[in-house]
Design a protein that fits this description.
- The protein is α/β, with parallel strands linked by helices.
- It folds into five domains: 233 residues, Periplasmic binding protein-like II (D-Maltodextrin-Binding Protein, domain 2, 3-Layer(aba) Sandwich); 147 residues, 2-Layer Sandwich (Beta-Lactamase), CATH 3.30.450; 150 residues, 2-Layer Sandwich (Beta-Lactamase); 161 residues, Reverse transcriptase/Diguanylate cyclase domain (Alpha-Beta Plaits), CATH 3.30.70.270; 245 residues, TIM Barrel.
- Helices cover 45% and strands 24% of the residues.
- Strands 1, 5, 6, 7, 8, 9, 10, 11 and 12 form a nine-stranded mixed sheet that branches.
- Helix 1 packs parallel to helix 36, helix 10 packs antiparallel against helix 11 and helix 23 crosses helix 24.
- Keywords: Coiled coil, Membrane, Transmembrane, Transmembrane helix.
- InterPro entries: Biofilm_reg_signaling (IPR052155), EAL_dom (IPR001633), EAL_sf (IPR035919), GGDEF_dom (IPR000160), Nucleotide_cyclase (IPR029787), PAC (IPR001610), PAS (IPR000014), PAS-assoc_C (IPR000700).
- It holds the Pfam family SBP_bac_3.
- It comes from Caldicellulosiruptor owensensis (strain ATCC 700167 / DSM 13100 / OL).
- This is Diguanylate cyclase/phosphodiesterase with PAS/PAC sensor(S).
Length: 1016
């Protein structure tokens, strides 16, 4: 162990020297060139070159051995340069016998497939034997040109400098067919939206191996590249790179992605049902209106409006209220007498919205109709209600002036609950029946009811979503309502088939709708309720909720179907969006914690029936906060998204059933269900660690990042019977993995539960200890080895727990660190230490200095500097007598933050010491930049300084190095006179340990401070 520490120290010193003096070295230059437009192998964007070939070359040629000079050009020029030796390596190059005369090849890196592409619907018969008859195109100097010329014996053809130009030539009709690499052609066809124009006519005509092409001038590169390729294949790195590129550049991939595309949501919920009541009553009373004339008509209109389950308003273009129905009175608390003649905006609209609403009146006057408008109103008691409005301007010779009829639906509850229409069916049932009967009456009265029919159509077209009427005997279809213009009515009505409307339904709904009507007719039912999707003229699928009435003739045969439909599209899309947000992470697209827990609960139930075994793995990215702090949250988000994709792709390859989710900011969780043996999870986690350690390119910062991860594993049903138990146990396992140094995984063990319970008990007692001030400080003297006088004391925290006595710092400090209580405890330590040194000054002990230990968590809090300043002012302590001790690892963690804090406090006069020097992993390069006053050598080196040459050499090296950069050295844990003599010989400045004094309460150490010297 000491030998390892010795070599570690020597290496660290050498690294410091290397960093101070310039080093000159050179790597072997390799000129690597690619086709500038051959994606996904290679392509250029904004002056940079990307692609599979470039990424592969970067990992093949080790950066400490080779300096890769990257360039790109058109393919025929690239190949010409390779043959002439102007470039060293090119990729990918098809392996052809004729090329072996001019260049070397590495071992194959991939297989490319050659296919023949034509336009879709190309009527001529095409085969490999009659290609001479057609205008054929190929990529210039590509291996496909050799195949066309030598294998297929086609001598007359056209060449193109890039595959993209070749594809466009085919699409534009300049050539009739293209012989091209399928992987590249598929990419450009998809990229340029040519899937509906071009197709592959003959697949896999030739299958060709491709490799790195190497200049005859660089034969030594062949064996090196082959060796590196074998290494990358063995480690799985090559396969991972290949999969990342070629799993996506195919039509099948895009078809799958398109199926997964989530419907965009609309912002408005247009549900208008009260107008149905108005229309129904109008139709039912048609004949009576004809009999009673204009006065009867007005009476019935009044009756309709007063009984409507919605607001009905009549306003003039100034916004003055002319009519205010009973429902409006009930909803707002105002009577019609209170509001008629007054402006709508003055009474009901909040002041900040009045100008906007007044502008709407002008818009209604211009456009005649303004539907699906939503705004809030204020009721008499001050409540806010949200109303969904339909507004229509009515101009008629019966009216003295144009009037606005506004019908409003109270959607306050809908906005709160996002539940639409579920509670409206009972109210709609009777009105729908009446509407259907009214429609039948309307059709039977021809000339007499023509004028009323026009009025009916006006109301239906402006306030109903869709009314569908099918005359089965005459095979005639009629559509009414606001949505009628959304459908190709002429085509539907011109087709002499009573089933033509089914063709416009979604294929998943078509059979269901047909069977519902079929069953209803078989049973003689009159009413059918159903939801379905129907395609409009724009090709968009609309959700309709329908209640249909089937009319039968005297022989009980169906003769007519009338259906009233409400457009549910907005509701459905909103529900889908809400469901997605409830169960999926918006950044990564992965399931969230809620869906993960529900899935785990389902699988736990299956476990009992299947008698199977599963495991839950909880993953925490180590130090992910550093990525956000250094590179920004945008880079952090991009990294999380890319990492989620890589893990998902790996899990898809496994034979066991898996479920992957993001359950926290930088936490992921995986369920492995149906394990054959528990050891499988060990293998899976080992591979997952490699994925986290692999580099990921982050586009927003143009660099590669990698991390490590800690994982906890809990098996079910062995470790828990429910979700809560399993999550508790896997979280403890994760904590154990992080405590053991991170970048590892830990299986849950029963002792962890006991340990956790003990930790909880300690944390509870710590909180009480802070409240009751159960802590006290002990002090250990630090001796100046030149005169053997006491130079300073180190403040050490002790906890006297009532009923249990002294609790070891090793037991409670880690719990305080983890829980965050160390911040408050640390503040108490500083305050007690400042108070004690001030009391000693009053007693004449004014020479003494005070050393105080800091935790990293306490040191990095944003209030730390303010706390120290406040306590210095409160106790009037001389800052130059204070030194803070912090570990070297803690000092360089978040280096910029540490440097800022240290510089500020050092300007006040406070000194800093690096504690336990030599045991951390920090670099001396960092330490030399920090404003520290000295280092404390860890007692593990001092305890072996007599018996171990390595330990003595390390201590001598630390002292020598520290003195060279003007740092003082304190030796900890000095217990023998021989250790003291050696430390004096090598020039150590200060020492502390049981040889001089153990840590003492302040009253006892005060006696030593008065004496100044300690006799050894």
């Amino acid at each position: 162990m000491m030998r390892k520490k010795y070599f570690l120290f020597v290496f660290t010193v050498l690294w410091l020297l290397i960093s101070i003096f310039p080093v000159y070295a050179g790597n072997t230059v390799v000129k690597f060139e690619v086709d500038k437009n051959y994606p996904p192998f290679s392509y250029t964007s904004e002056g940079r070159i990307y692609g599979f070939s470039i990424d592969l070359a970067n990992i093949v040629f080790e950066p400490d051995k080779f300096d890769v000079k990257l360039s790109s050009d058109e393919w025929h020029k690239v190949y010409e340069k390779l043959v002439k030796g102007q470039v060293d390596v090119v990729a990918p190059v098809a392996i052809l016998e004729e090329r072996k005369k001019y260049i070397y090849f590495s071992k194959p890196i991939l297989t490319r497939h050659v296919g023949l592409y034509t336009k879709k619907g190309f009527s001529k018969s095409v085969s490999l034997k009659n290609l001479k008859k057609f205008k054929i195109g190929v990529l210039k100097s590509d291996y496909t040109e050799s195949i066309l010329k030598e294998k297929l014996n086609v001598k007359v053809y056209s060449t193109f400098p890039t595959v993209e130009k070749l594809i466009f030539a085919l699409a534009n009709g300049k050539i009739e067919a293209a012989l091209v690499t399928q992987e590249i052609a598929n990419y450009f066809i998809i990229k340029n939206n040519l899937s509906d124009i071009l197709e592959i006519k003959i697949k896999n005509i030739y299958i060709t191996k491709s490799a790195f092409g190497i200049s005859k001038k660089r034969p030594e590169l062949v064996s090196y590249i082959d060796k590196r390729l074998s290494y990358l294949e063995d480690k799985g790195i090559f396969d991972e790179l290949y999969f990342n590129y070629f799993s996506t550049y195919s039509p099948e991939y895009y078809e799958r992605k398109n199926r997964e595309t989530i419907l965009t949501f609309l912002f408005i919920l247009a549900i208008i049902f009260f107008a149905v009541s108005l229309t129904v009553l109008i139709m039912i009373k048609i004949n009576k209106r004809l009999e009673h004339g204009k006065r009867a008509y007005e009476s019935y209109a009044q009756l309709l409006a007063d009984n409507a389950n919605a607001i009905v308003l009549t306003l003039n273009l100034k916004g003055e209220i002319i009519y205010f129905n009973k429902f409006a009175e009930q909803l707002t608390g105002y009577t019609s007498e209170e509001v008629i003649g007054k402006k709508w905006t003055d009474i009901f609209i909040p002041s900040h919205r009045r100008e906007y609403i007044e502008n709407l009146f002008s818009k209604i006057a211009e456009e005649k109709v303004l539907n699906d408008h939503e705004n809030e109103i204020i009721t008499k008691n001050g409540d806010i209600r949200w109303i969904l409005w339909n507004n229509a301007l009515i101009e008629s010779p019966y009216l003295n002036e144009p009037l606005i009829i506004s019908t409003g639906l109270d959607v306050t509850q809908i906005k709160k609950t996002q539940q639409l229409l579920e509670e409206s069916y009972e109210e709609l049932e009777q009105t729908n029946e009446e509407l259907i009967n009214a429609l039948e009456t309307l059709n039977k009265n021809s000339q007499v009811l023509e004028e009323e029919k026009e009025k009916y159509k006006f109301f239906v077209d402006n306030v109903s979503d869709l009314v569908f009427e099918l005359d089965i005997n005459q095979k005639k279809i009629e559509l009414y309502g606001k949505l009628k213009d959304s459908f190709d009515v002429e085509t539907i009505c011109s087709t002499k088939s009573s089933l033509v409307w089914l063709e416009y339904l979604h294929e998943d709904d078509r059979g269901k709708v047909f069977r519902k009507f079929q069953d209803a007719i078989f049973l003689g039912d009159e009413y059918v309720e159903l939801d379905f999707r129907v395609k409009d003229k724009c090709g968009r699928w609309r959700w309709l909720s329908s209640r249909a009435h089937i009319n039968y003739d005297e022989q009980k045969n169906p003769e007519k179907i009338v259906a009233v439909c409400v457009d549910w599209t907005a509701k459905k899309e909103y529900e889908n969006k809400i469901e997605y947000l409830a169960y999926y992470d918006t950044l990564t697209g992965l399931p969230n914690r809620k869906l993960f827990e529900e899935t785990l609960e389902d699988w736990l139930k299956k476990t009992k029936a299947e008698k199977s075994t599963g495991a839950v793995v909880l993953i925490d990215i180590d130090n992910f906060k550093d990525i956000n702090d250094i590179y920004g949250h945008e880079a952090g988000d991009e990294y999380l998204k890319a990492l989620g994709e890589k893990v998902s792709e790996y899990l898809k390859k496994l034979e066991v059933k898996t479920f992957f989710a993001r359950v926290g900011g930088d936490e992921f969780a995986i369920i492995f269900h149906g394990l054959v043996k528990k050891e499988q999870v060990i293998e899976f986690c080992a591979q997952l660690l490699k994925i986290f350690e692999s580099e990921i390119y982050i586009e927003s910062i143009d660099r590669h990042l990698f991390t490590s991860a800690s994982m906890g594993i809990s098996f079910y049903p062995d470790d828990g019977k429910n979700v809560k138990e399993i999550f508790r146990n896997v979280d403890m396992a994760l904590s154990s993995a992080k405590d053991n140094g991170k970048n590892d995984f830990q299986i849950f063990m029963p002792f962890m539960l006991m340990k956790n319970l003990k930790k909880i008990e300690i944390e509870k007692n710590l909180k009480k200890a802070i409240e009751e001030d159960q802590f006290e400080l002990y002090y250990q003297p630090v001796i100046n080895l030149k005169d053997m006088e006491i130079h300073s004391v180190e403040a050490l925290l002790r906890w006297n727990l009532p009923g249990k006595g002294m609790v070891s710092p090793l037991e409670f400090i880690p719990v305080a660190e983890e829980s965050g209580l160390i911040v408050k405890i640390g503040e108490m330590v500083i305050e007690k230490a400042f108070s004690d040194i001030k009391n000693w000054e009053r007693k004449g002990i004014d020479y003494i200095n005070m050393a105080i230990n800091l935790s990293v968590r306490q040191f990095k809090t944003k209030f730390f500097v303010d706390v120290v300043k406040k306590l210095i002012e409160r106790y009037s302590v001389d800052p130059q007598k204070i030194s803070f001790e912090i570990t070297e690892t803690g000092a360089v963690e978040n280096f910029d933050v540490s440097l800022k804090i240290l510089n500020f406090l050092c300007q006040m006069g406070i000194k800093f010491m690096i504690d336990d020097f030599g045991t951390g992993y920090s670099s001396l390069i960092y330490l030399r930049k920090l404003p520290i006053g000295g280092v404390k050598i860890d007692k593990s080196f001092i305890s072996e300084i007599e018996s171990s040459k390595e330990s003595r050499a390390i201590v001598e090296g630390i002292v020598l190095l520290a003195h060279k950069i003007d740092l003082k050295v304190v030796a900890e844990g000095v217990e023998t006179k021989k250790e003291l003599e050696i430390l004096k010989e090598i020039g150590c400045d200060f020492a502390q340990g049981y040889l001089f004094s153990k840590p003492l309460p302040k009253t006892e150490v005060e006696k030593l401070l008065i004496a100044k010297k300690i006799t050894v």
